[in-house]
Amino acid sequence: MLDRDSWPRILPFAVYIAFIVVADLLGRLGVQDLRWLYPVKIALIAALLMLYWRRYSELARWDVRPRDLLLAVAAGVLVLVLWINLDAGWMVVGSPAGFDPRDGERLNWLWIAVRIAGAALVVPVMEELFWRSWLLRWMAAPDFLRVAPAAVGVKAFVVSMVLFGVEHNQWLAGIVAGAVYAALYMRSGTLWTAIVSHAVTNGLLGAWIVITGAWTYW
Q: How far apart are CA 4 and CA 7, in angstroms?
């Protein structure tokens, strides 16, 4: 069911999930400071993306129309606003420890830079390749590269949107974000719109977290 074009889109995401499991296990074993895991995770994912870059035909060229770019940026801001407000108790699963970049009471700007860079530059590419480029289209047809984004159908849209939400502690905000990014991809026909929108959300969210000190959102 999985061809050679699927794995370059699956493996970076699999590494991302594996590190979540590792962090949970280390936390249960009593390891206190797990911040070092993040740059290791991001470096490995970035290395995989670079290794497979020529295989990502959907990213071979920048083919975003100006109006679609503006829409992607606006949608990214909208998702940010919704994300920081869809945080009622029933909208959140578990109690995320977050990522605290402080050393005592002092902000460690190196940790902040690494976290924001990873969230805004690496994660959007990795997640959009997996969730939108691969899974969304693969559910429509195993030969997913031949599936036009606009032709994936309602079932694939809904299932991928819900699964994307379940991936996050803020499951409802995740579902909304998944719907927005998928809609952008399906409307524009280019994955770059979803990546840009996702990057805007994550980058601005990082800035908001630093300003407010709401580290659990990381």
A: 6
Number of C-alpha atoms within 13 angstroms, CB side, residue 199?
Answer: 16
Question: Which 3 state secondary structure label does DSSP give 69?
Answer: helix
d(CA 123, CA 117): 9
The domain limits of the chain are 7-217
Size (the chain), residues? 218
Which residue is it, tokens 């809904």?
158
Instruction: Give the tokens for residue 191.
Output: 């994955």
pLDDT at 96: 78
Burial of residue 125 (number of CB atoms within 10 Å: 0-12, 13-18, 19+) = buried
User: Is residue 174 within 8 Å of residue 164, measured between CB atoms?
Assistant: yes
Largest CA distance in the chain: 53
State pLDDT tens for residues 36-48.
999 999 999 999 9
Please, are residues 128 and 137 in contact by the beta-carbon 8 Å criterion? no
- pTM assigned to the model: 0.95
